[in-house]
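Hello forum,

I keep getting stuck at the same step: I have a sequence, I want structure tokens, and every attempt I make locally crashes halfway through. Rather than fight my setup again tonight, could one of you with a working pipeline run this one for me? It's a single chain of 163 residues.
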Amino acid sequence: MTRLTTIELHKESMKFASGHFTIFSATEREKLHGHNFTVSAQITAVVSDNGIAFDYDIYKHRIVQLCKQLGHLFLLAGKSPHSTIDEQDEYYIVHFNGEKIPFLKQDALIMPLANITVEDLALWFLEQLTQSEQELKKHSIEAMTIKVYSAPGQCGSCSWLKD
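Reply #2:
Ran it on my machine without issues. Output:
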């Protein structure tokens, strides 16, 4: 019988403070604002004969590093169906519903997402953590769920299951 366990990671260091706005439609968006986002992971893996699944510090450190990439930046949706982003000198200019919203490039990050929401941020983290099939196999990982919280008790999640 294969024994599975789920390791849950939710550490104080797995957080980032970033600005964003959610685009609701071609004509509606939130005002610019920010959150202290937190990230958690649930990783299901096979438990070996010596009673351990894998060294989960690997994923803890990776999530912390991903959080650092996003911290203290204004996150922009690079794949939004309702906005476009142009570059002008040291600025990104977001075009939305007739508005031109400028951001200094040094203060912003264009993400390969349709929207900057907890749902899409969870997808981004999950894609970063599951891109290596070889690594997932090495650690006998069967499933992974990432949650991104914009406030306590308010999150979006995304899950991956082994084929």
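The helical segments are 57-70, 118-130, 133-138. If your local run keeps crashing, start a new thread with the error log.
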